Amino acid sequence: MSKWHSLLEIMQFPLKILFIGTLLLGIGTVVLNQNVAFLWHLDQQLLIKLFELLRYIGASVIYLFPMLVFVQVLSHRYESSILVIIGVLSVVLINITMVFFLNPEFSSYFYESIFNFTTIDFDKINGTLFSTRSPYNVGILSYILGYVITHYCYMRSRKYSIFGITSFVDHDAMAGIMSSVTSILCGIALAYIWPFVIQGMNAFYGLIANDISNPVNLFLYGISERLSALFGLLDIPREIFWFSDMGGSWLNNVGLKFSGDVAIWTAQREADMSSLTAGTFITPYYVINLFIIPAYYVAYFKLTTDKNDRKRYLGFFIIAIALSILCGNPFPSEILMVILSPMLYVFYLFIIGLLYAFLQISHIVIGYHFNELMILANPGSGLDLLEYLRNPYLANSVYKLLAIGVVVAIIFYYLTNRYFKKYAFGLFNVVDKDKICADIVEKLGGLENIIETQSTIDKLTVKFVNREIVNYEGLRQYGAYLMLESKNGYLIRIGNISTMIKEYIDQEKKNEIETFEAVVIKESAENQKKEN
User: Fold this and answer.
1) CA end-to-end span of the chain, whole Å?
2) Is 184 exposed, middle or buried (0-12, 13-18, 19+ CB in 10 A)?
3) pTM of the complete model
4) What are the pLDDT tens digits along the chain (532 aa)?
5) 8 A C-beta contact, residue 320 and residue 297
6) Which of 210, 279, 273, 215 shows the shortest CA–CA distance to 245?
7) How far apart are CA 151 and CA 185, in angstroms?
């Protein structure tokens, strides 16, 4: 539990960069959004290039987020730039090696080049029909393997003797050599193993595609799609259902075929059709971005009890909510949710799945006008709805969608509030809350040693009577990974149980006061009886 809580400390910088990248992508998308041409329209080429640049920079930062996390984890653990270099080299070697041994016959969306230099021209090598190849799109798996290999080889290299014929090779160089060899072997193995994963994905998505109007299939799609974002595989389901026959097909008046949910919606919108037949795979995004994510941040803010913390965090919450509503990208908020509240993230996925199913049953569909690079996609923006509200054929669906969103927001706000107050122990464990809180209070020196407490959903601030009697080692057993003295007391980073601890302390102090008052009243009554 302690290691999981400490993830927030490790990932703070990559998360901030991710939010900045999302902001840049959002600004560029908002300004250049075709659906808001009735509000503003740019004609100056220089400004258009500037905002396009912001979009591409933001999208690139989001794409590089796993790499940023990978580098941060390595540098945080070892505090050595050499290990970071070895780790990055390991990831690159895994991907390059895969290219030479993979099966090139799968659909193109199952492959992805890393920084464009893992795409290899095979025409120049052996004259194969496939001129270029990219490694399999394995998401974050290559980074996980790179970390494991780097860690293992680094630890093994410390046992290497620098005496003998290879004495010119020091420990760090040996770690690099061992890591390179292991990464190449790992790349070969992955090239033969990953096709089985691809076959599994094809079977799963094929099952969904058999009937994309089936609510159960859409329930499964909704959960799997958001999980794929977490594992860096989001482009696969999007390519399959947004731009291929598995997401549906449609012929226009001249017989031109459009494949995929987003492609069909875009074509029908550009044809100015009144009856739109797509949007199934996009509609829930509007509820996610406009209602669920803002509800999560509002609950987070309400659970922050200290006025100074509220003032400090207010700007972030306003930007985060505006970013979600106007720009439509839930990924940064989902990462934050996974770190701070993993069980809540499970509920979140379940709600997303239900949304896909319920909106299909209710025949509410609002699509996404998009025909650019997948990396620039930002579905579910509130600005898109402004345009659709002006459309008499879509306005009714939009109003229904907004009503459903309000209900879902209230539900998720309640779930977030209850989670942090009652069920945030461990990862997915429900335990005796009072017993653990009592033990933590004891390690804080007991109720009599606590003057005042404040909390956010990841930290506890305590004013002590005597800090010397606090059992810091005992607190570490419950996940406390950082303890600092501040002007408001001692700041203790103890993770998502912080709110429950404060609630428990406040309730116990209230009970003590009520007990004391009851005793005073009883003694007063007894004294009056004696006097009478």
Assistant:
1) 61
2) middle
3) 0.88
4) 455 666 777 888 999 999 999 999 988 888 887 777 667 777 888 998 999 999 999 999 999 999 999 999 888 877 778 889 999 999 999 999 999 999 988 998 999 887 654 555 555 555 444 457 789 999 999 999 999 999 998 888 877 665 555 555 677 788 888 999 999 999 999 999 999 999 999 999 999 999 999 999 999 999 999 999 999 999 999 999 999 999 988 888 888 899 999 999 988 888 877 677 788 999 999 999 999 999 999 999 999 988 888 888 888 899 889 889 988 889 999 999 998 888 899 999 999 999 999 999 999 999 998 888 888 888 998 888 888 888 888 889 999 999 999 999 999 999 999 888 887 765 445 566 778 888 888 888 888 888 888 888 888 888 888 888 888 888 887 778 778 877 777 888 887 888 888 888 888 888 888 887 777 787 777 777 777 6
5) yes
6) 210
7) 16
- From CA 513, how far away is CA 84, in angstroms rounded? 55
346, 428 contact by CB (below 8 A): yes
CA distance 423 to 457: 12
* Dihedral (CA of 32, 37, 40, 46) sign: positive
C-alpha angle 209/210/214, rounded to 5°? 85
CB within 8 Å of 490: residues ≥ 6 apart: 461, 462, 463, 464, 467, 470, 483, 484
- Find, among 270, 271, 221, the residue nearest to 247 by Cα: 221
CB 400 within 8 A of CB 48: no
Q: Residues 246, 340: contact at Cβ < 8 Å? A: no
Show the 3-state SS of 454-478.
Answer: EECCCCEEEEECCHHHCCHHHHHCC
| Lookup result for tokens 């947004």 | 242
Total Cβ atoms within 10 A of residue 366: 24
